[in-house]
Write a structure and sequence with these properties.
single chain, 147 residues, alpha+beta, 27% strand
């Protein structure tokens, strides 16, 4: 299915681009979230007229994400956990835990924006990337210490 992107999508394109994606990705992700239009002749005409407005809106989102990224880079989160042998945790630190602690510090970050591939299960200091925008990915420092 061909769609016209309304905003930048990672590994796909920028606003106004006409891209070919699978039907399921378009129907279940891009269209319901307002990230794209279906590529019909009428929408192609409309998007040509809106392209400058879309680019300005995208630049505004990128700048907002950049200012938030500068604040996030200064953040250091600390989690204390019970530890077993060899420094392995009883349980783990997940992206939901990180999002909850960020919310406590005044940041509105959803857990799906935190790019943690697997939960943290050992003691140490970790750099955890946060996806704020397709072009902006700050890293926050997460400390996991012994309780």
């Amino acid at each position: 299915m061909e769609v016209i992107l309304r905003q930048a999508v990672e590994n796909l394109g920028s606003p106004g681009d006409v891209v070919k994606v699978s039907n399921g990705f378009a129907r279940n992700h891009l269209l319901p979230r307002g990230m794209a239009f279906e590529a019909t002749p009428g929408n192609l005409k409309r998007i040509a007229q809106e392209k400058t407005r879309l680019e300005a809106a995208e630049n505004e989102r990128r700048n907002a994400a950049q200012t938030l990224a500068e604040r996030l880079e200064q953040v250091s989160l600390t989690f204390s956990a019970r530890v077993g042998e060899e420094g392995k945790l009883f349980g783990s630190v997940t992206s939901a835990d990180i999002a909850h602690q960020l919310e406590g510090q005044g940041f509105q970050i959803e857990k799906r924006q935190i790019d943690l591939h697997e939960p943290l299960r050992t003691l140490g200091v970790f750099q955890v990337p946060v996806r704020l925008h397709a072009d902006v990915k700050p890293e926050i420092k997460v400390w996991v210490i012994k309780q």
